[in-house]
């Protein structure tokens, strides 16, 4: 019996004797199956290969990034947010080993895990069991959980305060339960972690909003308007996405300007071609 892991998206499945017939995350239109076909591995095999390690980097006071090298699965970055004796793992990555666990325990461990959306569920249960931490997932994405666990807490509504200054906001769009994280990190302005519910573009001056990034399916204007309106009510100066792209300042303003440009493009008001 193995907990099989999809090599394309990195999501771990419930224990089974044989490999699953397909990955329901990848066969859905927001993701994709590799051109080389559906392939599976296990976390034990990844660790035993000796090919991977997690690089844990301090980004600023109270914030560490966690990145697997070389890249595995989608290649997202997870973040350890340290706030008032409360450590939150924001989003997840598949690879976890003894060295990773030791290093994070030296940083105070993990008190809770929160996910932006199903593409980053990865081996979230392995992380939860290693640190005895609850996993917070919005109930609207319950159907996408591939490995059930008593550690998973399905929360409801539009907002969940995990700790004063640490707030989850359901914004939808990319997934119905898509969530962003507000961190009021004892500064004048806060930081917004967005996974790829909102994605920072190449020049770090704009963001975009998509239903599917690999398949280039945009979100409709009414959804982007709703997301922009919701983000306008949150206090943040900095924005960090799932691929280590950061808007360091004026991020709230840049998000609103980006939303307006996106909507204008879809409504045929931005350009003629």
From TrEMBL:
<dbReference type="InterPro" id="IPR001279">
    <property type="entry name" value="Metallo-B-lactamas"/>
</dbReference>
<feature type="domain" description="Metallo-beta-lactamase">
    <location>
        <begin position="75"/>
        <end position="231"/>
    </location>
</feature>
<protein>
    <recommendedName>
        <fullName>Metallo-beta-lactamase domain-containing protein</fullName>
    </recommendedName>
</protein>
<dbReference type="InterPro" id="IPR036866">
    <property type="entry name" value="RibonucZ/Hydroxyglut_hydro"/>
</dbReference>
């Amino acid at each position: 019996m193995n907990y099989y892991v999809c090599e394309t998206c990195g999501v771990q499945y419930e224990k089974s004797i044989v490999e699953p017939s397909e990955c329901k995350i990848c066969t859905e239109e927001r993701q994709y199956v590799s051109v080389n076909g559906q392939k599976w591995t296990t976390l034990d095999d990844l660790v035993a290969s000796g090919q991977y390690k997690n690089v844990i980097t301090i980004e600023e006071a109270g914030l560490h990034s966690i990145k697997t090298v070389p890249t595995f699965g989608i290649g997202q970055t997870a973040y350890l947010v340290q706030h008032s004796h409360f450590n939150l793992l924001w989003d997840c990555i598949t690879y976890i080993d003894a060295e990773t666990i030791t290093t994070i325990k030296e940083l105070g461990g993990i008190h809770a895990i929160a996910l932006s959306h199903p593409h980053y569920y990865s081996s979230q249960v392995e992380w939860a069991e290693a640190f005895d931490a609850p996993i917070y997932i919005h109930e609207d994405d319950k159907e996408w959980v591939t490995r059930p666990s008593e550690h998973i807490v399905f929360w409801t509504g539009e907002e969940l305060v995990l700790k004063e200054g640490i707030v989850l906001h359901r914004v939808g769009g990319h997934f119905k339960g898509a969530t962003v994280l507000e961190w009021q990190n004892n500064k004048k302005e806060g930081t917004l972690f967005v996974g790829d519910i909102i994605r920072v573009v190449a020049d770090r001056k704009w963001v975009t909003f998509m239903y599917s990034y690999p398949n280039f399916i945009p979100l409709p204007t009414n959804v982007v308007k709703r997301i922009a309106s919701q983000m306008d009510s949150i206090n943040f100066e900095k924005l960090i996405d799932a691929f280590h792209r950061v808007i360091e300042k004026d991020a709230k303003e840049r998000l609103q300007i980006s939303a307006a440009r996106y909507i204008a493009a879809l409504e045929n008001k931005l350009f003629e071609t």
